[in-house]
Amino acid sequence: MRRIKEVLRLRFEAGLGHRQIARSCLLGVGTVHDYLKRAEAAGLKWPLPEGCNDEQLEAALHIGGRPERPVRRRAPDFKNIREQLQQHPHLTLQLIWDEYRERDAGGYGYSQFCELYRCWRRTQDVVLRQDHKAGERLFVDWAGATMPVHNAETGEVWQAPLFVAVLGASSYTYAEATRNQQLDAWIETQIHALEFFRGVPKLIVPDNTKTGVIRACRYDPDVNPTYQEMAMHYGFGVLPARPYKPRDKAKVEAGVQLVQRWIVAALRHRKFFRLADLNDAIRELLERINHRPFSKREGTRASLFETLDRPALRPLPASRFDLGQWSKARVNIDYHIAFDTNFYSVPYHLVHEMVEVRSATTTVEIFHKSQRVASHLRGRGHEKAITQDEHRPKSHQAHLEWTPSRMANWAATIGPNTVHLFERILSDKPHPEMGYRSCLGIIRLAKQYSAARVESAARLAIHTGACRYKSIQSILKNSLDRQPLPEEADDSSPRPPHDNVRGAEYFG
Asked: Residues in the chain with pLDDT < 50?
């Protein structure tokens, strides 16, 4: 479904043709045509209707399994044969053909096998001359060289990586030194590049770096979700180069060489103590490079940019992309996920489900099947549970509403003695929650025996000090609440004479 959504977005938002969409999504042109035809029949366009999830989209497009194709006999793996010949200097085509015929008795004869291999080998070193359209492609990559930055206090030196971006038609170049090659630097440098070019191309062609492509594959690469989200925000398509095919991004390879020769080498005698100062120096030399005349044709990179790429680039969006990182988590039995040393709640019916987490500087968003199910302010503590009440089951919400004040309010409907009894029960426990059940049991006794009798029983329990649920239940069961309270002894009555009893004169 992710690829189908990308096809719809590139068609209706970016306005790309079928072949361009097929190249960006690494699909066949017929497959793209089929997806768009199904979407047209279902009345779907981009953006999709609010609330449309993957299951609804799949049902609307009637996408099901395809029948398995019959297995056909394939030609020999000439690429593997060439690698073997390069690795083993004593290996011959005769021996490889013998092994091939042992595996496939009905395969090619030796003469045809050798002729097919030679024909295949002649086609491998052919170079395609690419004709870049204005405003269509931006090639990006990390340079191999780094630049030293010194710590003024400790004297330590760390190496700053270089990011390079080159537009296809004009070769207009951008370069920037970064703190590292992590995802945040990868995203931020490309945002800076788009702002430097003052527009957005239709496609960006990166290398298969882990920050851009999670799993490199010639036919079906997995683009980093955060990078893909950035592409959707700016409206461009991501077309990763094929693994181990640097000629797919020859423009940026040449740009990297240019930056290393005219920037890295030119700044070799200067000493920088801040990354910002290094980037200011890079920007000055970059201005010279882009305005340097070409040696074999007229104009400069800057002049071609203004006449070719600049008018063809689409405008930047109104707001910058808010960098957020994606990860996956499984919902625990307490309907919380663990993320960055804290716990965040999701609706309780998602217990044990796998969800996606998008974390930004101030927020944490949780998605299930492409739908946002929770949004929290990002916690800054440690082992802190951040919970929304609506995510709890009704029974849990009711339990959390039991507070000492609520118990006192319930007791007040019976009488003041019951309020005093509840206060004694809750204060005698190490934690008030330990007395909730006793209080609830007494409230139920009021429904069984009447509020007046429970009030009398509470008065007797307080008088005797038997402030427990079992005591109240026993008093009511044995009708002790109907009997008068035992009179307290009068301290003013004279005491009987005794030899051990001393009078006041003894202490005088």
From this structure: 65-73, 128, 488-491
DSSP E strands, 209-352: 213-215, 222-223, 237-238, 325-330, 336-339, 342-345
What is the reported pLDDT for 486? 66
Q: In the block, which residue shows the tokens 């970064």?
A: 178
DSSP structure class, residue 314: B
Contact 194, 234 (CB under 8 A): yes
Say if CB 263 and CB 175 are below 8 A apart: yes
496: cis peptide before it, omega within 30°? no
Look up tokens 């793209």; give the residue.
32
CA nearest to 21, candidates 3, 38, 2: 3
Among the listed residues 204, 227, 202, 203, the one whose alpha carbon sits nearest the alpha carbon of residue 215: 227
Closest alpha carbon to 412 in 449, 367, 443: 443
Contact 475, 457 (CB under 8 A): yes
Positive or negative: CA dihedral 61, 65, 67, 68: positive
Give the dihedral of Cα atoms 466, 468, 474, 480; nearest 10 deg.
40
- Cβ proximity of 442 and 454 under 8 Å: yes
pLDDT at 8: 81
Cα distances (Å, whole numbers) of residue 241 to 95, 215, 246, 328, 349: 35, 12, 8, 26, 42
Which pLDDT belongs to residue 463?
86
Give the per-residue pLDDT at 70.
42
Which residue in 312, 315, 301, 21 sits closest to 194, CA to CA? Answer: 315
User: Residue 279 — φ and ψ, nearest 5°?
Assistant: -70, -30
Local structure of residue 147 (DSSP, 8 states): E
Instruction: Give the whole-angstrom CA distance, residue 405 versus residue 423.
Output: 10
- Nearest CA to 8 out of 242, 240, 232, 205 is that of 232
Positions of E strands within 307-389 = 325-330, 336-339, 342-345, 354-359, 363-368, 371-377, 385-386
- Alpha-carbon distance of 149 to 142, in angstroms, equals 18
Nearest-angstrom CA–CA distance, 248 and 207: 9
The amino acid at 75: A
pLDDT for residue 177 = 95
Report the C-alpha gap between 105 and 20 in whole angstroms.
Answer: 43
Give the tokens for residue 172: 């207009």
pTM of model > 0.85? no
Residue 389 burial (10 A CB sphere; 0-12, 13-18, 19+): exposed
Q: Which amino acid is at 48?
A: L
Assess contact for 282 and 176: CB atoms under 8 A.
yes
Q: Are the CB atoms for 62 and 38 separated by under 8 Å?
A: yes
Tell me the CA distances in angstroms from 25 to 5, 45, 233, 353, one per residue in order.
11, 18, 17, 29
**Phi and psi (nearest 5°) for 325?**
-105, 145
